Amino acid sequence: MLRKINTNIFFYLCQSANWQCVVEAEDEECAATAAFEKVMKTCDDEKEDGRFTLSMVVAVKKMPSNLIDEKEDVDSSIFYSPTILANAGFHSEASNLHNFLCSQEESENNEQE
């Protein structure tokens, strides 16, 4: 990937569960969405029966815009995976993951009582 340093498009490193992906985007949420789209397409292209490991959140870190003159202090952003799946157009998968995560939380709450 190439990008001109003086543009409003940046590189972001995205990670969820056991995968990482570098994407170009305008902001962190767009980067997370682009990463999910890329992972879903890669799984389809490789005929891996459409499955990949996904955690509750996706972490996104903006890469410094200029490595030679690196003065930026770059923080990571965290997004709820079902929201990003929905942003990427995978609404039924988003709903399924959200329901699964909620049922796990309810199960843990019941065990604590």
Structural class: alpha+beta
Oligomer: single chain
As a whole number of angstroms, the C-alpha radius of gyration is 16 Å
Give the H and E element order: EEHEEHH
How many DSSP H or I helices?
A: 3
Describe this protein's structure.
- The chain is elongated.
- With 113 residues, it is of the alpha+beta class.
- Helix content is 42%, strand content 22%.
- It has helices at residues 28-45, 81-87, 91-112; strands at 10-16, 19-25, 57-62, 76-80.
- The protein has one domain.
- It has a four-stranded antiparallel sheet with strand order 2-1-3-4.
- Helix 2 (81-87) packs antiparallel against helix 3.
- The protein is built from three helices and four strands.
- The longest helix is centred in the C-terminal third of the chain and has 22 residues, at 91-112.
Provide a brief overview of the structure:
This protein has three helices and four strands, in the order ββαββαα. The protein is α+β, with helices and mostly antiparallel strands and 113 residues long.
